[in-house]
Specification:
This protein has 258 residues and is an alpha/beta fold. Helices cover 39% and strands 24% of the residues. The protein has one domain (2-257): Rossmann fold (3-Layer(aba) Sandwich), CATH 3.40.50. The protein is built from nine helices and eight strands. Strands 1, 2, 3, 4, 5, 6, 7 and 8 form an eight-stranded mixed β-sheet that branches. Helix 4 (84-92) links the parallel strand 2 (76-81) and strand 3.
């Protein structure tokens, strides 16, 4: 039966909207139970945007609005999301949110000061139309930061193997690489910089780490032992002497000026 499921997913790889309309609830549950597990994943890219009081910041895709907890009150966050499930969570928490479809962003030309995208656009095959749209909505001298999974990285291996195997939605990533830099330049961005962000997800104990990953990635076909084996195959789980548990993670990060 498993082979049949894989055969079906091989013919139809779900897009972001389809995936998170299906498993957004599990993802959101993980983020509610352990809201600061990925604190560094949010704060490291944020630190590259040089946010100023009053800035209009767009988060794309925003999930359930998880970025908000890391922002000063004087930053105006607007969530852009293509999954109705996540958009509903944003609304329930009182966040400013708009639904968007494909690459069409419901924002006026030059209306955005800064735009951040963390670990969501690897579900998009052709990113050029989206980069063109992002360039349109960011004001002159505005900033863009994209942090996402790198082609050939351990994280990419984990997603396209372990998550693909144990999630009902499967996983096929279209990850970032040197072509991303070229696509951003073609969209009109300048002052392009690229770096790898290395950091850790942090948990009170190993069971919390495994349960978080089970929920976050929708690994419904896996037991916790399967999750641990899959993580250890690609990534490093640390148990520091002072207690807790950590999972090594990394993203490829691009910053650019409009």
């Amino acid at each position: 039966m498993a082979a049949k499921i894989n055969d079906v997913s091989a013919h139809h790889h779900m897009n972001y909207q389809e995936i998170f309309d299906r498993r957004g609830q599990m993802y959101h549950e993980a983020m509610l139970h352990w809201p600061d597990a990925r604190q560094q994943e949010f704060t490291l890219p944020l630190s590259l945007l040089n946010l100023q009081p009053g800035d209009y910041l767009v988060d794309l895709p925003s999930g359930g609005g998880y970025l908000q907890r890391y922002l000063a009150d004087e930053i105006n966050l607007h969530c852009l999301e293509s999954s109705q499930v996540f958009a509903d969570y944003c609304q329930q928490h009182g966040f400013s949110v708009s639904l968007f479809h494909e690459h069409n962003l419901p924002l006026a030309d030059g209306s955005v000061d800064k735009l951040l995208s963390i670990a969501g656009i690897h579900h998009i095959v052709d990113k050029q139309p989206l980069f063109n749209e992002i360039h349109r909505v960011i004001r002159p001298d505005g900033l863009l930061c994209i942090a996402d999974v790198e082609t050939g990285s351990a994280v990419a291996g984990f997603l396209d193997d372990v998550v693909d195997r144990y999630s009902e939605t499967g996983h096929r990533g279209y990850f970032l690489d040197h072509n991303t830099l070229q696509a951003l330049a073609e969209a009109g961005f300048c002052q392009l910089k690229q770096q790898r962000l290395h950091y850790q997800w942090q948990f009170p104990d190993e069971e919390a780490l495994l349960r978080y990953c089970w929920l976050l990635f929708g690994l419904e076909k896996a037991r916790l032992g399967d999750v641990k084996a899959g993580l250890q195959q690609y990534l490093n789980i640390e148990s520091p002497p002072e207690g807790g548990a950590r999972l090594e993670w990394q993203l490829l990060c691009f910053t650019a000026c409009r």
